[in-house]
Amino acid sequence: MEYAIVSNNGVYIRLNNGQPVACSKKIRDTFSKQKAENILEHLPKSMRRLHFKLECIPDIKMETPVERIVKATKTSIKGNDGYEVAESVKSWIDKFGECERILSDAAKRYKELEIELKRADEELIDILHEVELEKPVDLYRGWIFYKRIRTNRKNRRNLKDEMVIIHNVIVEVDTTKVSKERTQKAINGLFSRKYRYRIVEVENGE
């Protein structure tokens, strides 16, 4: 069993280069009973007037009332009874549902544009083949070919521009994360939340 040397007003002793000096409880030294008694008997006169005595240090740490409370509540968990979802929270179900619909429409439209773009390219090839295979034409017939090619190219440019805008969004967004069902599931999870109490432990004597 270990012993500390303490005065009536809570001043402790530790050894500094073999000499006893006053200190706080945190940095005190502990000794065997024989050594503690020997130090106590040979204290300097300036320290004897503080009336030092031996203090037994139990081998098993005594549990204080505060520590018992901490131990009991460390695993204490409070449920989420009586919780009601605020309207501002529930409103996101429809908002994200609308986002899901828009993104779905965008993905569908992008596929349609790919088909239309392919058709426009095929149409241009057909026109060029007509120009290649037809006999020399007059000015009016040449203007008709020009107009068909110009209309085809303008239509193709519009298709590509729309594809660029849609692709710029859908390529960056994970559509599986934006849905009415996913949002509802997240809100349902709010009801099963648990709170674990947090209690700060304090050292004895502080």
Primary descriptors:
mainly alpha; 6 helices; 2 domains; 206 residues
What does this structure look like?
The protein is mostly helical. It has two domains: 2-60, no CATH class; 89-196. It has helices at 33-41, 45-48, 65-73, 87-133, 139-170, 180-189, and strands spanning 2-6, 12-16, 19-23, 53-57, 77-78, 195-196. A two-stranded antiparallel sheet has the order 1-4. Strands 2-3 form a two-stranded antiparallel ribbon. A two-stranded antiparallel sheet has the order 5-6. Strand 2 (12-16) and strand 3 form a beta hairpin. The chain is rod-shaped, with a radius of gyration of 43 Å. The relative contact order is 0.12. The model has no long low-confidence stretch (mean pLDDT 84).
Broad structural category:
mainly alpha
Gyration radius, in Å: 43 Å
Shape: rod-shaped
**Run of helices and strands:** EEEHHEHEHHHE
What fraction strand?
5-15%
Count of individual domains: 2
User: What can be said about the biggest beta sheet?
Assistant: 2 strands, antiparallel
Uncertain residue segments: none
Number of strands: 6
Q: On the 0-100 scale, what is the average pLDDT?
A: 84
Keywords: Coiled coil
Coiled coil: 103-130
Secondary structure topology:
Elements: E1 2-6, E2 12-16, E3 19-23, H1 33-41, H2 45-48, E4 53-57, H3 65-73, E5 77-78, H4 87-133, H5 139-170, H6 180-189, E6 195-196
Antiparallel strand pairs: 1-4, 2-3, 5-6
Helix pairs in contact: 4-5, 4-6
